[in-house]
Amino acid sequence: MKLNKKHPLYQEDLQNILSLEGLKNIQGKSFLITGATGMVGVMLIDALMALGNVKVIAVGRNRKKAKNRLGEYFDNENFEFLSQDVCEPFSKNLNVDYIIPAASNTHPLAYSQYPIETIFINIKGAENALNLASACGATVIYTSTNEVYGNAVSDEDFTEDYNGRLNLSNARSCYNESKRTSEALCQSYIAERGVDVKIARLCRIFGPTMLETDSKASSQFIKKAINNEDIVLKSEGNQYFSYTYVADAVMGLLQVLLHGEIGIAYNVSSEKTNIHLKDFAQLCADYNHKKVIFDLPSAEESKGYSIAMKAILSNDRIKGIGFKPMYSMEDAIRRTIEILR
pTM to 2 decimals? Predict the structure, then answer.
């Protein structure tokens, strides 16, 4: 499985992102992006570099991994790789226009194996990004998550002021609670230090920039489809979630950057890709005329799984600032498989 950035479908995704109204306003600007080698980070950086006349400082812990994911830019004068742990403070000499803290553990095995690390990456990563923004006057686009809402207590979609049922009795809460705390930190830096922060709450994202080590159910389905194998579903699959194709997610993130209000959170989701987990699995199986096989997760996997059965995000607010998701679920799955084959 290897990301083919020259694939016509991937290039089309980038052009769709670049069709956003107002992107010319960020030309001549500089970005610091943490989590640069992650699913969102890679496509966001590819889009910004394709836009041109944008300076990108990509932050990551592993230079070799960064070269594998973003190596085509290492000789570009508008690109810089900064090898740094986001839990460490940034140099006071850095001066950028936008900071997008996107570094996080984002899959079940990481939650179960490294819950302490997950908490500190989120909270310290947010703190250090906010301190840098306070020092240099940058605007922060904070990448939050649908998991801040907890578990649904009704059939209503999650609007940005929704509060669900929380469960703090196990280590799985390391992710959602540290993201909630990080959002509170953002609001505190706005109130106390006047930092400009906009918040994008991303839902479950999938697409061709996924990492091979990703243990999310959607990523496992896609890997099986790429390998022309039956799809393994490790539950009954009745969970009903908002998913977003990574190109739509990047468009939503940039829409918040361009047109969002300071201190306001925006759900980044698409009604076109809300789906039950078993139907996601079936679409991946149908691509190769394969079957869905039901299996039990390992004990380690189970510890990291969300217990939520429904998490549908309302996108009325972000649509109000011009966001128009483009991809159907069938098209997004097809594109992902074909780009990665």
Answer: 0.93
